[in-house]
Amino acid sequence: MGLYALAENTEYFAPVTDDSEIDYERKTVIEKIVVRDGEMRIGIKNQGVMTARWAGADDFELIRLGSEEEVLEGKGDEFIAEAKSRRNEQLAAIWPDIEADGKDATALIKNTDCLRSDLYGWTTVNLATTSGQAWDGNSSNAYFDKYREGSLESSMTQTVNYLPEGDYTLGAMMRCTTGQTVTLKAIHQTAGGEETAYEKTITGTGDQTEAGSPWQRGWKKVELPPFTAASGDRVTVSAAFSAQATSWWSADHFTLQWNKAGTTDIGEKMTEKAKQNDDVLYNLNGMRISRPSKGFYIQNGKKYLVP
User: What's the whole-model pTM score?
Assistant: First the structure.
């Protein structure tokens, strides 16, 4: 848990290192933050798997130190790069080493199974939680859900600000009103700001268990195509539902599977694409790249690592 600020797509974090009451003589401080576009978000947040269920903050204070030129003497870009690197090191230290193929990286996402029966970790629109018709048949298990008479626009979104290098596959359990659709989506963002969206939409069959289905009450397993991330990349996870009539939808059990970079079929597919365009450089998501940053790339049918 600690104090954070987000500006210029860079997150600054000052951790609280021990449990205590609020101490006005020992403030948690982020010493410098570069703001260029006039926008900054501040607050408190936990990092890693949440073990405690309380936190408090008070007496926020923001002091302008001066212009970027005055304070950083023209080295603002270097300062931002160092801040990003430092934050990545903090985030990397949270997670255990990922070495074996098939590692479950779901812990990177907060509140994946609605275990607290609340919306913690998610930015939501018209969403609640309930129980009684869980995908695994346990009626006491909570899940994310929304019912409304008339039209309904509902969604849940969460950004994972640091990914260890590897191939990732996002999945979730979902269901909705018969004939309506619900969508699972992931937006992968590289350190250079390039974005690639992956999504899958399913049609609901209501809340009745389908013959032969391994899951209860109309739940379906939704899984997106894998994407490859370099260390420090981000992914925004979302689920969304839209209908113009009385309807409902549910989501639960979000999962994130990890494999070593290039060991899924992404690399094979992109290699074939690159063979047809010998002078073109691709990342492993199939995007043309003009200025590669760190990570794996494909050119002339071969995979290269930019350190």
Answer: 0.68
